[in-house]
Amino acid sequence: MREYNVALKEGVDYDGFWNDIESDTDGGKLYIPNRKVEFTNERPASLRQCWYLLTDEEAETLRNDDRVYCVEIPPEYRTDIVMMPTVTQTGDFTKTTSDSGAYINWGLIRSSNATNVYGTGTTTALNYDYTLDGTGIDVVIQDSGLQVDHPEFQDGIGNSRVQQINWGSYSGGAFTQNANHYRDYDGHGTHCAGIACGKTYGWAKEARVYSQKLAGLEGSGDSGTGISITYAFDAIKTWHTSKAGARPTVVNMSWGYGTGYNTVTSLNYRGTSYTDSNTTSNASYRYTNYGLNSSAGSTTTYLANVRIGSVDTDIEELIAAGVIVCIAAGNRATKIDVSGGTDYNNFVVTDGGTIYYQRGSSPYSDNALMVGSMDSTTYDATNDQRATYSETGPGVSIWAPGTNIMSATSTTNKWGGGSQNYYFNASYKQTNISGTSMATPQVAGVAALVLQLNPTYTPAQVKSSLLSTAGSVIYTTGLTNDYSNTRSLLGSSQKVLYSNYNLATTTTTTTTTTTTTTAAPTTTTTTTTTTTTTAAPNTFNVTNAGSSNYVIGGNSNPTLSVTEGQTCTFNINAAGHPFWIKTIAGFGVTNAYNSGVTNNGEDNGTITFVVPYDAPSTLYYNCEYHSSMGGTINVTNVPTTTTTTAAPTTTTTTTEAPPCVQYRCLSSKGGYIFWTDCTTGLQSSTSINGGKVKFISSTTYPIPEKGSNTKITKITT
To answer: Global pTM?
Structure first.
């Protein structure tokens, strides 16, 4: 049994048909299934369409009903059609260390692919194909400010997307916003905003951009223009709530707290206290053996992570209010453990007090998206790797590109010669910098795309969606305490940001089950939502380096990644070296995999591969004649998220209207629906003149009828 979209011909008795197909029997109708057919998507905005669970045989028979226009598998589930991206962003996505030039944020390419498409190189021939742009979403950059007139924050026709609201008006009079709030003399905030929602460098290219400059993050000469952290959080909560769900909110927090110290008295690691001279006097020894990083402080010798209860409480309240919060894990190369973890209670006693140094720094929440940074240099041709500066450990929930990221910056900034003229308008600036600060707006931008598709998603659902689609191709040693290896994940997940939301299709199916009793009706509703996504089409340009190897995307015999349901096009330009997709590696034509493959074995043309949903998890490509020319194709399962929500149970006692009356109701859509206020003697399966019975009270007329907001327009007893 599968989901079918049933569409009716215009002008037929729509409600009559819906009643027929949802009745317990076919009522003598020749082509209607002789059972109550369950709908899975009521399509309330459509008069003529509804999704039903049907067998293939039932669907074929139903097509013969002269009221039916078509019975089809919904387009979201079909593998024989493709919805092409509406926009392709071309440009130079090279991983560069340069601050100037036409280079674009390479994270757009890396995180649009499930696997490392750069191999061990720095260039790619891929473009950024997208259908989603953050329309309808509000992105708040909580940082050093924003250069509001930077062209990166314009929409497609040149209008500014920056919303310069007065945050003080959402504080209950707690503060007055500084007149110079909307400027950035540091450059960090503008850079983060460009990654999240810049029109060139960013993901959410049509999102509204909001800036909240925080006191303490202002640039030189800008002191006193920011908002205190407490007021800032309260203002966001009040502002978000005032929107009443009209537009989802994503907040990017590329900042954190630290605490300074100079000397160590003792250190407690995994329950054992150490006071020896190596522990108290040798910072390198402390890091290698106990994971206490020796980051330098600005006014003290060392700086460590620190949690602040009030700040973390504010984060929890923001999330509870429905705000999506993305937080930079930090740049002190320190493990973050979670409550109950082996290293969560490790502490050091210093001249600055006792510090639980492996709990991360505020802002922090297990319910937020805590972001670690990947390096621009990969571990090998397949695996990305943690940036050496990035926090890691179980407290890091997702990894994203954060090293050598090109984006906008403010004209007045702290980079000096490190910023260059904005390539597209020399009156403005751009720069290339690194940090978890750069990785986090990548996640914030993709979160905006998730919300564009699913604007009612909760923070938990957004996080679940991102983690369920994330790749797992970042290098790990598998150990939790090899602190001297600055690439070790130290127990962190291998979740790598993967935006497969710029997709061919995304569908949400909702099933509602209702149980009613007649004496004192009790209705229990359980809603199960299943979201299935089909990856956007992908193109691989294949050439050859003699008889040594295939060259794909500038890399020699790279590992490719495809997703179930995805349409992949291989443009082959390798005369004399037929390209075969196979189930077993090796030259020759045996073990060819032909399911969904058109023109397998082409050497100068196009091979199309629509990846079946039952494809093996690993396939291979090989030259027909040369064993050295070949590689692996990893097949990723199509991501599906299922959420079941039980609505509150309500009990309603209905007073019968004497005498018992039956109503013949004229629908606003044409046709008739039969109702009764008789709560005894008739069951809901009873038919009156072929119409299905509904229980009502005469005082409830008119009320919506199931189908498409149908309302009763006339009652005849």
So the answer is: 0.63
